[in-house]
Amino acid sequence: PMQVYYSREAKGYAFATACALLSTYAWGRGLGYRTCRLPLARSASQTRWWIVYGLSTAAAMGTHYYVAPLILWQGLWVMGKTGLAWTRTSPARHETLARLRQWLLVVGIVALLLTPCVLILFDATVHGVSGVSRKDSLSLWSYLAWVGSAFGAGPDAKGAVALIASGGLAVLGIIGALTTDRRAFLSTWVAIPLAAAYL
To answer: pTM above the 0.85 mark?
Structure first.
């Protein structure tokens, strides 16, 4: 419902979502979290995915600054994997360090690409956000209820429909996390951007 709602507006939400999904997919392919089955050399394939990652991330961030928590999650995941590999003295620790360097390089290039846009739009964005944020902030439970309602039933949903939709969305998320072997990946993919957005 949320996607249908925003697809009717002349805004960049659908484009930002599509670019963010492509960014996450390309990030996983570039880092080797998702292996490529095509008969290409691994390094050539990874370079292509890093290019796709950089372009899709720049497009997503350039469309809406709320994509930043997703990029934060990606960085924390790469740093966490690197830290775990080094603390456990894994044989792949040098490879994880190389992955971290690659990610930092691409994100640095994305930041350089977006710097002119940020400099031009920064004052207007801060003024707009400060104008909207004059109320008291939501409690954590109110925030989670609002997010669940908006994602489950659309931004204007209220009452029983919002409660049922947000509860159903939470149940689906829990089932998804419990039935996959990548529980930490999926749960942090949701939890870190939600926590960053709340803060």
So the answer is: no
